[in-house]
Amino acid sequence: MKIYVTEDYKAMSRKAANIVSAQVILKPNSVLGLATGSTPEGMYAQLVDWYRKGDLDFAAVKSVNLDEYVGLEPTHEQSYRYFMQHHLFDHVNINPANTNVPDGLAADPAGECTWYNQVIRNMGGIDLQVLGLGGNGHIGFNEPGNAFELETHVVDLKEETIEANSRFFASRDDVPRQAMTMGIKSIMMAKKILLMASGEAKAEALKLAFTGPVTPQVPASILQLHPYVTLVADKAAMSKLEGLL
Ligand code: GLP
Fold it and tell me: What's the whole-number average pLDDT of the chain?
């Protein structure tokens, strides 16, 4: 695993954007696995900036997002489709037809997940998967549990995740209770993984993920078994890992 420790959130965002840029420059028709949440926001802003300066071209890029809330329409401000449009897709020359996010309004969410697995396969798999980290060690919406879920599936969100994400909604009651997420196998099949983490709130999860046993109780711990992981984290997120990695 390659590790970059940065001074702060801004430097983490820039480093992560550099890694995504390198991927797109070296392989213009890359399949990017994309993540939402507050962690990658700065990275997307940096990518948009470099696109505007003419340094990046997304014309041939394809994307597949990790997850989406069940029940939120694509135009809902907290849907992950909206997030992606707002932070990246609306500002760069990616072909909208090449961007994929599960449909939160699908009448049959389980069927939507099966279809989504096929979408990923049809694209030939993911070249670079960007990941954030939940405070409880989740990746995508793969919550701590008794088994690693394989491919895209419907999940019941944990209370702590509903709580953590309630800051984005008018009230806790407005947070959807379910989501669709790529599974651990879908993520592990990506050729390369870029894990981002910022802030002290992620320090414990990072420590457990990389120094503890590989266990579905800490979904991110599976990344110990991936051959090509790059971790970009700021000092605060790395604070419990000093001297351990
Ligand atoms: C959400 C998302 C994850 C994200 C995590 C952390 O639940 N499904 O993909 O990594 O929360 O979010 P944040 O980056 O806002 O801390």
Answer: 96
